[in-house]
Known about the structure:
Distance between the termini: 34 Å
Strand order of the largest sheet: 4-3-2-6-5-1-11-12
Helix content: 25-40%
Radius of gyration: 18 Å
Amino acid sequence: xxxxxxxxxxxxxxxxxxxxxxxxxxxxxxxxxxxxxxxxxxxxxxxxxxxxxxxxxxxxxxxxxxxxxxxxxxxxxxxxxxxxxxxxxxxxxxxxxxxxxxxxxxxxxxxxxxxxxxxxxxxxxxxxxxxxxxxxxxxxxxxxxxxxxxxxxxxxxxxxxxxxxxxxxxxxxxxxxxxxxxxxxxxxxxxxxxxxxxxxxxxxxxxxxxxxxxxxxxxxxxxxxxxxxxxxxxxxxxxxxxxxxxxxxxxxxxxxxxxxxxxxxxxxxxxxxxxxxxxxxxxxxxxxxxxxxxxxxxxxxxxxxxxxxxxxxxxxxxxxxxxxx
Length: 325
């Protein structure tokens, strides 16, 4: 059965400052254009999701690729994952420092028809970078991933002895809820895309630079299948937010199960985020925050977030492209 192609993208859910919204909108517009172009030319959902995420990894507005937040060593460490709903094949990388497009390495692991990775689906650190080199993906100097905005943020955090990585924010209709130290939210700018192609196939892709001032080697939800991304025959999903909380509840898998049970995509996303926020209450941490995008096999899109803002955009065949922060 021929389907009307569709695409939804996100650029992170947090208290995005007014001064950064224009850049976010520009990045979303570029991502939607790139993914839409693939679908309009008859390309696969997997190709469209990858193209959209590659565009956001290249755009300095987001916490992914160039523009990523910095860890305690003052460097970017990147994670990414992607999944094909038609085959349930997936690939992911984590903790890479010399790839500007980790989603391409994740896609290569998904494909890996030559068996170079010996069946591996998730590679980390040096092993992931070595795999990327073997298949011809270019490496970049790590400093090329760093932008002035994140260098300034790194020094401000390092000078603050009260910094805590959990910066809680209340829902979109509430006043911002400060973190344990009363300070404003920190970026959770993970990017992602979900796509439906004309053949009815779904796909999802997620990429991130992680959490500001994280310990070297920290891995969040983005490269974990069922947590930061998931796709099957019925649903494609990409999440963003506090990675530890999202991984704890397997957020994307939970939403997919609710959609399979007959719940509307957006309602399922809102319910799962609310359940996560109620369940994950760790000492010293603010309530869990997050957001996600969902696309059902009939082309119905959905999104939900617990933060004041989430950068998001989309397009469907026969409709106009849009973006919002």
